[in-house]
TrEMBL record:
Belongs to the NhaA Na(+)/H(+) (TC 2.A.33) antiporter family. It is a multi-pass membrane protein. It comes from the Bacteria. Keywords: Antiport, Cell membrane, Ion transport, Membrane, Sodium, Sodium transport, Transmembrane, Transmembrane helix, Transport. This is Na(+)/H(+) antiporter NhaA.
């Protein structure tokens, strides 16, 4: 039994299976929403379950609650990369940073050009995200033979994209700020940081204390008007690195096996539009901005950076493959779609469909490009051996 459980946890920590599970959950949500039971399932997902002052729907418990655990994992990885990993020096970080900037600016410009303006324009942050789990999953499946520099570049790029997404969520989607609650949230984070650095043999008591402070941080952040997933970000950055890495390793199977599939399923509960009106411009804007904007922005900015700044160069084909992988927005893009159009269900549903369609296009395109590049390297290796 322990061996089976260990094998399942190992599978959920891999780069391939979680991406497949995430895609399957999103497809399941989309299919269910467009069956005869779809209306009932969507209504159930929007049922409120909670107690004052936490009166949240089931969907928001997933989006605002469980997803904070995902952002905790993201910020732990960010902390590691900034201190020990690929972003620990300016020299290492500058090219991925410029590529990430291109991968934000070009999709935003494309989105604004295609969205038709008006209320739809507020969805410009949606195509700025890269789903690192999905991107690394595609790389793991189709990239056998690629040099490690491609994975390193993609990981650094995706981490920087996550920073952009986190900042956008914190700045753009704060509502009715309550500074007293925000101050209490920061006090809880400071206490969490201090307690995580205590050297004690009482591991259970320490875990309980950290858990209580984490829940308090989340609650205060929710009540402050700042999106509560930011609590996960702050806790991941504040925790002592060794304990943070251990904690992330422990929760990773739950993130990949429960949190993200549940979020993907509930976010994809979107009925296809009926009638002759067709899909609104926001759908097409996201559909184009993710796969095209990311590829052009990342590959173009990285190519320019390499020639202006010098240093280690990646072949342009590798940059194009990395740019295509960056177009798989998925998790954070779905969250941004929900936040950007929280008060307009029609635009929210269209943007969600755009994220799913655009990410699928980017997935297929990146898989083909990664396979082509990997095959090129494998053939070159055989010729030189």
């Amino acid at each position: 039994m322990n061996g089976d459980a260990g094998a399942k946890r190992s599978l959920l920590r891999s780069e391939r299976f979680p991406a497949i599970l995430l895609l399957a959950a999103a497809i399941a949500g989309l299919v269910v929403a467009n069956t005869p039971v779809g209306t009932s399932v969507i209504a159930f997902a929007h049922q409120h379950l909670g107690f004052l002052p936490f009166d949240l729907s089931l969907t928001h418990w997933v989006q605002d609650g469980l997803l904070a655990i995902f952002f905790f994992g993201v910020s732990v990885e960010l902390q590691f990369e900034l201190t020990r990993g690929e972003l620990r020096s300016i020299r290492r970080a500058v090219q991925p940073a410029i590529a990430a900037a291109g991968g934000v600016v070009v999709p935003v410009v494309l989105y604004l050009a295609l969205s038709g303006g008006g209320a739809a324009a507020s969805g410009w942050p949606i195509p700025t995200a890269t789903d690192v789990a999905f991107a690394l999953g595609v790389l793991a499946v189709f990239g056998r033979g690629l040099p490690s520099s491609v994975r390193v570049f993609l990981l650094a790029l995706a981490i920087l994209d996550d920073i952009v997404g986190i900042v956008l969520i914190a700045v753009l989607y704060a509502t009715d700020l309550q500074f007293g609650m925000l101050a209490l949230a920061f006090v809880a984070v400071v206490l969490f940081a201090i307690l995580s650095r205590v050297d004690t043999r009482h591991g259970v008591l320490l875990g309980i204390g950290l858990g209580v402070l984490a829940l308090a941080t989340w609650a205060f952040m929710l009540l402050s008007g700042v999106h509560p997933t930011i609590a996960g970000v702050l806790l991941g950055l504040a925790m002592s690195q060794d304990r943070a890495l251990i904690t992330r390793h422990a929760v990773e199977p739950w993130i990949n096996g429960v949190v993200l599939p549940l979020f993907a399923f509930t976010a994809a509960l979107v009925p296809f539009p009926s009638g002759s009106g067709g899909l609104p411009p926001v759908f097409w804007a996201v559909l184009v901005a993710l796969p095209v904007g990311k590829l052009v922005g990342i590959a173009g900015a990285a190519w320019i950076a390499q020639r202006v700044l010098g240093g280690e160069r990646m072949p342009f084909g590798d940059l194009v493959a990395a740019g295509a992988l960056g177009g798989i927005g998925f998790t954070v893009s779905l969250l941004l779609a929900n936040l950007a159009f929280a008060s307009d269900a029609g635009l929210r549903d269209a943007a969600t469909l755009g994220v799913l369609a655009g990410s699928l296009v980017a997935l297929v395109l990146s898989a083909a490009l990664v396979f082509w590049r990997a095959r090129t390297y494998r053939l070159a290796g055989r010729e030189t051996s």
